[in-house]
Amino acid sequence: MSSASSECVKKEINAGKKQDQAVAICISKQKESLQRYTREAKLSQVRLASYSFRNKVAQKTRVLTASLDTEFVAPPELEKGQYDSYFLIAGDEINGNEWGVTGESIPKNIETAIDRPFVISSNEFIENSPYGDKYMHPNILHFLKKMPEMVEGLDPDIFEDNLTFQEPYTVSIMKRVFFDTEKNSWRTIMKRNKEFANHQMPPFCSISIFQDDMLEPEGQITKWRVINLTGLKDRPAFGNQATYDGTCNNTLGKCTKSFATDKSLLTTDIKFAQEKIAALLTTDITETQAVPIYGMRKKKQS
């Protein structure tokens, strides 16, 4: 019996208890003490684990603020990644598929490209692609007659359905658009998905837009939204200007400075200074070698 328990027994005997009674009382007290210690120890561990979890997940600390807006979102300028730059669109040109947008409409509509995908149909990028090794615009109309089960419930005349259909072909996401006064065209900077980091990007591209007003002449479209930009191996409808500009591994801010030179205007900086930008756009018609795609209604592809 420990000294503590001996002292307990002596204390109980002095209080008038018999030897056996004193021992039983002290044993009971020891059990209660041990159980209380165990409960407190477990509670301490739970509190410690809970505090650790809060700090890891919710970033909760002893620093308390009175603001209800506690979530920090890093500015896009600091977002690191692999960025590529491509031609996007040129105004006042009739492309090889016999449609075009007005130069004045571009500043109003160009930022609909932000967060839209850069897509590739080929199985060199997209495993088990129904397009095989062909580089072309993913299109709901390609499957409506021969493979309708692949596009069940999707309508090519509904903007959101086109967005849904193209998701499996997404390689990058467009993050920024700018007008290059030297190349006389609008370009885009896109963030490449990590699984395609080691792929060689195709040399050409082609934009898909959604024409919102079907009464407008197809050579002077003013009401439109960007659906995607598509990577091509050859035959871009906007001709040899529809090219790949290069890649950059850094933050979006630094890559923007690399791609958008002093001769470029960023829409995020000029905030849709429409008249100023439109005055810089070309009115020349560029010859192309593209084969027109017919049968399209609201969805325009270059």
What does this 3D model show about the protein?
The chain has helices at 3-14, 19-58, 106-109, 159-166, 252-259, 267-270, 274-278; strands at 80-89, 117-119, 170-180, 185-192, 204-211, 224-232, 244-251, 264-266, 299-301. By secondary structure, the protein is α+β, with helices and mostly antiparallel strands. The protein is elongated, with a radius of gyration of 34 Å. Helix content is 27%, strand content 21%. Strands 1, 2, 3, 4, 5, 6, 7, 8 and 9 form a nine-stranded mixed β-sheet that branches. Helix 1 (3-14) crosses helix 2. The model is unreliable at 44-58, 270-277 and 280-298 (pLDDT under 50). The chain contains seven helices and nine strands, in the order H-H-E-H-E-H-E-E-E-E-E-H-E-H-H-E. The chain folds into two domains: 3-58, no CATH class; 76-301, no CATH class.
Summed up, what is this model?
With 302 residues, this protein is α+β, with helices and mostly antiparallel strands. The chain has seven helices and nine strands.
